[in-house]
Write a structure and sequence with these properties.
The chain contains 9 helices and 9 strands. By secondary structure, the chain is an alpha/beta fold. It has one domain: Rossmann fold (3-Layer(aba) Sandwich), CATH 3.40.50.150. Strands 3-2-1-4-5-9-6 form a 7-stranded mixed β-sheet, with helices on both faces. Strand 4, helix 5 and strand 5 form a beta-alpha-beta unit. The longest helix is centred in the N-terminal third of the chain and has 16 residues. The radius of gyration is 19 Å and the shape is globular. The N and C termini lie far apart (38 Å). GO terms for molecular function: polyprenyldihydroxybenzoate methyltransferase activity. This is Methyltransferase domain-containing protein. InterPro entries: Methyltranfer_dom, SAM-dependent_MTases_sf.
């Protein structure tokens, strides 16, 4: 069986060179306007990637603040550390750690900071975790009482081919490296946060691509979209057995057709952003 950590490492190592050439920097700028940051804050950024959120947070917390980014991708961290070496003013208030963000309790480099962070930021990563409630539970311990988390979750109609293939693979009993089935709407993550001792203060929908918030696929694009997802980096460790791939393609086509309206499958390029306080 594939390792989810290995898949994440592979996918994001490959994506590193082009990551900041995408919609991510513009989206992160808008996301960070919602982040309740103050001078002197300690900020934890699980799944920090190339450091987009981390560097913006470092500017906000000032010389007496601290921002700690954690990521499993060495490629992403190499990019973040390279930028850190160029940013003389921000460098002393930044740390980047190579570790599994879902297992922060085993990270010795973080040990002295447990329960001391004012804010935790996680963007464009949470659907990679198998146990969303368990991850929130673990992260909550790193935030001080009254501290906050800001986390985004994909819209239920975001990247529809990914939603469909996850459903198909579940029917076939084949593991898939992301977990979106639980994210059925605006309140799905709110319920998880509240069940884990967090009080949700803000929920806002942010478009990933402001110039194209809604995208339509043709019903006749089912096979094309299946191949696109099945050949993507996220499928690098999927091991098809026998005729599973053809069966998956057939199921994908049927599911795609079932969700089409007037010959179109609609996708929403957006994420829900949640700001929640530890109570």
């Amino acid at each position: 069986m594939y390792s989810q950590i290995q898949t994440a490492q592979h996918v994001y190592d490959v994506r590193t060179p082009d990551y900041e050439k995408s919609w991510h920097p513009d989206y992160t700028t808008r996301l960070m306007k919602l982040a309740p940051l103050h001078e002197g804050d300690k900020v934890l950024v699980p799944c920090c990637g190339t450091g987009l959120e981390s560097f913006m947070a470092a500017e906000a917390v000032g010389p007496h603040g601290l921002v700690v980014g954690v990521d499993v991708s060495e490629g992403m961290l190499k990019e973040a550390r390279a930028r850190q070496s160029r940013e003389a003013a921000l460098a002393p208030r930044l740390r980047f750690i190579h570790h599994d963000a879902a297992s922060l309790g085993t990270c010795t480099e973080l040990g002295e900071l447990e329960g001391k962070f004012d804010l935790l930021i996680c963007s464009n990563a949470f659907v990679l975790f198998r146990d969303p409630a368990g991850v929130v539970r673990g992260w909550r311990g790193w935030v001080r009482d009254g501290g906050r988390m800001i986390i985004d979750i994909v819209h239920e109609k975001s990247f529809v081919p990914g939603v469909v293939i996850e459903k198909v693979m579940a029917q076939l009993g084949v593991a898939w490296p992301w977990n979106r089935a639980w994210a059925r709407g605006r309140d799905s993550f709110k319920e998880i946060l509240e069940s884990e001792g967090m009080q949700v203060e803000v929920i806002e929908l942010l478009n990933t691509k402001s110039e194209q918030p809604v995208l339509s696929y043709g019903v006749d694009q089912a096979d094309e979209q299946f191949e696109s997802v099945a050949e993507s980096g996220f499928a690098c460790n999927v091991r098809w057995q026998g005729d599973q791939r053809e069966r998956a393609k057939d199921l994908f086509r049927k599911e795609w057709e079932s969700i089409a309206m007037d010959g179109k499958v609609e996708a929403v390029n957006a994420l829900y952003v949640y700001v929640a306080r530890k109570i």
